[in-house]
Design brief:
heterotrimer, A alpha/beta (253), B mainly alpha (287), C mainly alpha (222), A: 253 residues, alpha/beta, four-stranded antiparallel β-sheet, 10 strands, B: 287 residues, mainly alpha, 11 helices
Chain lengths: 253, 287, 222
């Protein structure tokens, strides 16, 4: 089951440049929320702040309050590694671990966190691959084929399975389909729609039609601020802010 | 504007293409020639003296015919083992540090130091280790020999490790971080594993280079006519033995020097080949 | 891609306004036919119907292509949707003008009778409503559209009055029943045109403000 995300006063910097200005946003549990905006608006930065990936970049920092369910992500004593275990992430370019088999990839998060029970691992791997709609295609070659030998769309689904295997409550997706062909894209979108039953999904996309297709809520970012955040239908038919309207109608960005 | 019909490649271009190919192939062959020539010469000069006695007996006193280099073969192995125990962890460790933790001015200083260390003449390394280890221990030893050779291995391994780790795409690391895997674990189990082929090559290069070094051992291992398996006693080594025999006035010793050199080359090539086979069979993956 | 899209939007607007012109022309000609009792105006209206129908087809096709190829959003999407609806209303206006022309032809074939209904005045009011509605579309001005909505009540009252008067006339003088019925129908046609003008105005408000003001309320999206 997913949990909600409560963001209050989130700021983020790259060195001296402020990339996010005091973001307030409530992401409801078991919904798909899209984050849109022109290049450089801070949407990727925002999402990477949710699971403290932002600070892995040298000279990058963030502060503010991010609560994922009960977990205070930026609280005193909060461990970034633990945060990332509870919040899964899928990246723009599929990035399976090159030296590992399909099984190895999906189980990587488990194995490298000390999980040992072989039978349970097998079950979790199967379950994750099924959730990612990849099981049927790879079940006969789990250990023989390497993760990198799959097609682009399959690799991305493998990365989704890998993220799901550690049983996060929230799934963050940074332009997950932008490197894929239309058929793989529609498979991923269908998948996202299914996933929201179990997880809370936040997806960054520069493709507005994709946001319109998969997300129930959409947030429009511009120059580090959250300009408008509402039901997706409203954003795309009668947006309240002129800047939102200019963006979704393609007048800029 | 219509596209022109495809034509054949002009004669001039074909000639220059062919010429460049010939040059490249020729250069490669020229590189192989000295290598093969040396090996062939060693084989011719040395194979006659390689026999069971040579491989199993210790040297006879000067002037006497016969004896072998058994202790030197074992001694080389012992010294190289010590060198590897020192050189591999320190080399790989510094390589990891440089690639993952020190992308800054301090890291540049370390890199520069490693490059300088790489260029230090081997005899100078030998003298340095003599002052630091041998003098303190008050005797020559296999240990000090291993230390000297180990120090020489470090820069090569560190640089190779760093280069190969830098070639691991950052997205792979990010995938690991995203799964909640701590940085050190990511570096060891993901990055290093991905870079393992190149790192192993770097280690083999370093190993092969120091395996034949003679000068550093002159003042550290020193050599020994008898068997020695203790780390804190002077120890025989093939390279030392070949040197000693080659400059001696004895004919028999000259022949044994050739044999020793041949055995040394065979052992080095054999070790490298064994590692290559082991890696290709996937036995060395999974650090 | 924006400029090609903008060209499409502009073309759509232009075509719709031109169709609006044809519809206005049809109303004016039908009114003129009533006033002058000259059948040539009726013929003009009847002949002009096919142009209006062709325009409707053309505009629908263009709107469909624009939706499929350019995936308009927000205000642009509302615009295209409004155009499609106004398109339908204008075609109906054309039909009503044809109906009026046919009633006038019938009146001409009968002896002229004095009737207590000022059709030309009603027609002028209706014509103004259509004109203003199309103006509000041209300029994208919701206030002008709102003014049109106000005028609908007046036309409704005129039609109701005409109804009462004509029924009275028919009771008093059964000989002119046929003419009275013709005029009653013409009044009704005019009232329908006014309704269509109101629809057009509502569609303009939807486009410009995103508010659904149909059926009397103002409904903004939650």
């Amino acid at each position: 089951m997913g949990v909600g995300i409560e963001v209050r006063g989130l700021n983020a910097w790259y060195g001296k440049n402020q990339a996010l200005q005091s973001i307030d946003m409530t992401v409801p549990a078991n919904h798909v929320t899209a984050v849109i905006g022109p290049s450089g608006c801070g949407k990727s930065t925002f999402v990477r702040c949710l699971n403290r990936m932002h600070e892995t970049i040298p000279e990058a920092r963030a502060d503010g309050s991010v609560k994922v369910g009960e977990m205070d992500v930026y609280g005193d004593g909060s461990d970034p590694v633990e945060v990332r275990r509870r919040i899964g992430m899928v990246f723009q370019k599929p990035n399976p671990f090159p030296t590992m088999s399909i099984y190895g990839n999906v189980a990587a998060g488990l194995k490298l966190n000390g999980f040992r029970n072989r039978k349970q691992m097998d079950e979790l791997v199967e379950r994750s691959l099924k959730l990612a709609a990849l099981w049927e295609e790879v079940k006969d070659n789990l250990h023989k084929k390497s993760g990198a030998s799959l097609s682009g769309g399959q690799q991305q689904r493998l990365c989704i399975a890998r993220a799901l295997a550690v049983e996060p409550e929230v799934l963050l997706m940074d332009e997950p389909a932008s490197a894929l062909d239309p058929i793989s894209t529609s498979k991923i979108e269908e998948l996202i729609f299914q996933l929201k039953q179990h997880y809370t999904v936040v997806i960054v996309t520069h493709n507005m039609q994709q946001a319109a297709r998969v997300a129930e809520l959409t947030g429009f970012f511009l120059m580090g601020s959250l300009i408008e955040y509402d039901k997706t239908e409203k954003i795309f038919t009668t947006p309240a802010d002129k800047r939102t309207e200019d963006y979704v109608t393609g007048r800029f960005g | 504007m219509s596209t022109p019909a495809p034509q054949g490649v002009s004669l001039g271009r074909r000639l220059s293409n062919g010429g460049a190919t010939v040059f490249a192939v020729g250069a490669a062959i020229l590189v192989l020639v000295p290598l093969l020539a040396i090996f062939a010469y060693l084989l011719i000069k040395g194979i006659g003296s390689v026999n069971v006695a040579f491989l199993t007996q210790t040297p006879k006193p000067p002037g006497e015919v016969g004896g072998g280099m058994a202790n030197a073969i074992v001694g080389t192995g012992l010294i190289l083992a010590v060198a590897s125990v020192i050189g591999l962890p320190l080399g790989i460790g510094s390589g990891i540090y440089l690639a993952e933790y020190a992308r800054n001015r301090f890291g540049d200083v370390i890199r520069f130091t490693a490059d300088v260390l790489n260029g230090v003449p081997s005899i100078v390394v030998g003298i340095a280790v003599y002052s630091l280890v041998v003098v303190r221990q008050k005797h020559f030893s296999a240990l000090s020999g291993g230390v000297a050779l180990g120090i020489m291995m470090i820069p090569t391994i560190a640089r190779a490790t760093e280069e190969m780790l830098l070639m691991v795409p950052n997205v792979v690391r990010e995938a690991a971080y995203g799964l909640g895997i701590p940085k050190w674990r990511t570096t060891l189990s993901i990055s290093l594993r991905t870079a393992s082929a190149g790192v192993i090559t770097g280690c083999m290069l370093a190993f092969a280079r120091v395996a034949g070094e003679t000068a550093p051992l002159l003042f550290t291992a020193f050599g020994n006519q008898f068997w020695n398996l203790k780390l804190n006693q002077p120890t025989a080594a093939l390279s030392l033995q070949v040197f000693t025999y080659a400059i001696s006035p004895y004919d028999d010793w000259h022949k044994q020097a050739w044999a020793g050199a041949l055995i040394l080359i065979v052992l080095i090539v054999g070790a490298v080949a064994a590692v290559r086979i082991a890696t290709s069979r996937g036995m060395l993956k999974g650090a | 891609m924006r400029s090609r899209f903008q060209q499409g939007l502009d073309e759509l607007k232009e075509k719709l306004l031109r169709m609006g012109g044809l519809a206005e022309q049809a109303i004016d000609r039908a009114t003129e036919a009533y006033r002058t009792r000259d059948s040539k105006f009726c013929q003009m209206v009847l002949a002009g119907e096919s142009a209006i129908n062709d325009a409707e087809r053309d505009i629908d096709e263009l709107a469909l292509d624009l939706l499929a190829m350019q995936q308009p959003m927000a205000i642009d999407l509302r615009f295209v949707l409004a155009v499609v609806k106004i398109n339908a209303d204008l075609e109906r206006v054309g039909d009503q003008a044809v109906n009026i022309a046919q009633r006038v032809l019938d009146l001409i074939s009968e002896p002229e009778v004095e009737l207590p209904v000022d059709i030309p005045r009603m027609a002028d009011g209706v014509s103004t409503m259509v004109q203003r509605a199309l103006e509000s579309f041209l300029d994208g001005k919701a206030e002008v559209a709102e003014a049109v909505l106000q005028m609908d009540g007046i036309v409704d009252r005129m039609k109701d009055e005409a109804f009462v008067m004509l029924v009275q006339k028919m009771t008093d003088n059964p000989a002119c029943t046929r003419q009275a019925l013709d005029v009653l129908l013409i009044a009704r046609n005019l009232e329908r045109i006014a309704d269509h003008a109101t629809n057009i105005a509502e569609d303009v408000i939807f486009w410009v403000r995103g508010a659904d003001v149909r059926h009397g309320g103002a409904h903004y999206r939650e």
